[in-house]
Amino acid sequence: MGMISSVTGASGSAETVSSSGKADTPPATAPPENMEQIPGMGPYLGFCRNDKAKAWALYSHGQAIRKELGLDTILHEPYPHWDVLKEHYQKAIHGRSKNGEIVLVECIGRMDLASLKKAGITRKEIVRYYCLFFEFILQHIGDQESKVLMIYDLEGLGLFSVLNGDFLGTVRMLSDCLGALYPRVITKYVLVRPPALFQSLWGLVSGVLPAGARNDCVLCKSAQDLEALLARENIPAEYGGSSDRLLGDAEEMRRLKAHLQSKQAGQ
Q: Does residue 113 surpass a pLDDT of 60?
């Protein structure tokens, strides 16, 4: 998969993950003296606790991944895989939190990799789809300084999926690309609709999620729990709120769909 496997470990250090799953530290390159002046470098320095060598390595890998995935042009060209990805890997932008973060919902428990594979969707395209949402958020919903509150919807998560190496490998790759491409964008991780075996499953799943989701997440079992973070009228009905839009039908998602349709039509 090329540079897509060059990502950051949970500690923030840059690593290269080989096809065998073994992580190797890539050759170090000296950071430029003026690296603080490079646009977009601030989040990398913050993520790596001002370790310039680590920040430069992470930034360089992120730029290589951006190039391989074509992220600089992903919002300016047709995106033919939208329908099949939306059906089998639901994600949704849904309003803002009480603190103003843009809310992004990740239905991780219902990710159907078997159906995606049958439809010819590669892991690389899954990563592009994942990044598509962040690119749209940062370019069209907010700006490059915007923050995101990530909700992980765990409904449907079961022992079979957790023990599936393809599932864990895909989630790990998405999490690692998040650190390499969008460091410090997510301010909080929220877990909703936990399955009955949550305590047993979480120990396995959390190991492949971003460090923030492992160490500083909030478990919300009810709409009342979510109301500490979201106004009730901004909580989707699926989670017990009174939002007038179902998950996937909020104004932000309508804008994203309209944008993609315009590109598909060649506009």
A: yes
The C-alpha atoms of residue 135 and residue 182 are separated, in whole angstroms, by: 9
Instruction: Identify whether the C-beta of residue 217 lies closer than 8 Å to the C-beta of residue 47.
Output: no
The domain spans of the chain are 2-69, 80-264
Please state the rounded mean pLDDT for residues 129-150: 96
* Token pair 């949402």 in the structure block, residue: 133
Give the integer Cα–Cα distance in Å for 145 and 39.
12
Residue with the bigger pLDDT between 123 and 201: it is 123
Q: Look up residue 73 and give its two tokens.
A: 């042009």
Q: Tell how strand 148-153 and strand 186-192 pair up.
A: parallel
Is residue 65 within 8 A of residue 6, CB to CB? The reply is: yes
pLDDT level of residue 33 (50, 70, 90 thresholds): confident
Residue-level pLDDT at 10: 34
Superfamily of domain 80-264: CRAL-TRIO lipid binding domain (3.40.525.10)
Q: Please state the φ and ψ torsions of residue 103, each to the nearest 5 degrees.
A: -90, 125
Cα 93 to Cα 103: distance, rounded to the nearest angstrom: 6
Residues in the chain: 267
What is the average pLDDT score of the chain? Answer: 87
Q: At which residue do the structure tokens 């609709």 appear?
A: 193
In the three-class reduction of DSSP (H, G, I as helix; E, B as strand; rest coil), residue 151 is classed as strand
Q: Which residues contact 196 (CB under 8 A, 6 or more apart)?
A: none
The string of pLDDT tens digits covering residues 152-187 is: 999 999 888 888 888 999 999 999 999 999 999 999
